[in-house]
Specification:
This protein is an alpha+beta fold and 207 residues long. It has one domain: L,D-transpeptidase catalytic domain-like (Beta Barrel), CATH 2.40.440.10. The chain contains 6 helices and 8 strands, in the order H-H-E-E-E-E-E-H-H-E-H-E-H-E. An 8-stranded mixed beta sheet has the order 3-2-1-8-4-5-6-7. The protein starts with a helix and ends with a strand. The relative contact order is 0.20.
């Protein structure tokens, strides 16, 4: 019995090691943002905007209308409106980066102004938030930039790194959606974004 357990455990470790090794070799071929900009002939990055496709686990970085680079991203679960509100989902809509945290748990955090007006109105119509909560969220959206994370609609969401789990998560050869609704890249990739985005950068999240 013990021998079988050891053989099974050893097999699992070997499988994981080979999986991560394969992911490592796949990642070594990725183009850096600097190389991508040079290939496009872009010397000065302007009007950066990001487009996320939930169904493809893909994020595209544009300079004006020029597609510069694509990133594989991890997301949250699918959107599910429940009595307690949406839980752990990556929202669909148009947002902007409202704050940048360089000492975040997940390396860097580019916070989005979630919920936007559409999110708040949907939640109000579904009876998840009261009219007063709806009005408060609208006020914060218009006048305070970032909306309070203390909301039943899911808290703060943004674009982040993977933190201490970076070595493991970035070398997986498949996408594992593990976030609480944020868009996650490797620490190295969020460092790249940090050099070209700013407060106010537009982020569109599509189904």
């Amino acid at each position: 019995m013990l021998k079988n357990i050891l053989l099974y455990t050893g097999g699992v470790f070997v499988f994981l090691a080979l999986l991560l090794l394969y992911g490592f070799f796949v990642n070594t071929g990725k183009q850096s943002l600097g190389s991508a900009l040079n290939a496009k002939g872009i010397k000065r990055v302007q009007n950066v905007n990001l487009v996320v496709f939930r169904s493809k686990n893909l994020m595209q970085l544009f300079a004006d209308t020029v597609l510069v680079k694509e990133y594989r991203v991890a997301l949250g679960s699918d959107k599910q409106l429940q009595n307690s509100g949406p839980v752990r989902y990556t929202p669909v809509g148009t947002y902007k980066i409202c704050s940048i945290d360089t000492s975040a748990r997940y390396h860097k955090f580019l916070r989005l102004n979630f919920p936007n007006l559409d999110d708040s109105e949907e939640a109000y119509r579904a009876g998840i938030i009261s009219q007063k909560e709806f009005e408060d969220l609208k006020f914060q959206f218009y006048y305070e930039g970032c909306v309070s994370p203390k909301t039943v609609l899911g808290g703060s969401k943004g674009i982040q790194g993977t933190g201490r789990m970076d070595d493991f998560l970035r070398n997986l050869p498949f996408v594992y959606n593990w976030t609480d609704g944020s868009v996650a890249l490797s620490n190295e990739e969020i460092d790249e974004l940090f050099t070209v985005v700013e407060k106010g950068t537009k982020v569109v999240i599509k189904p």
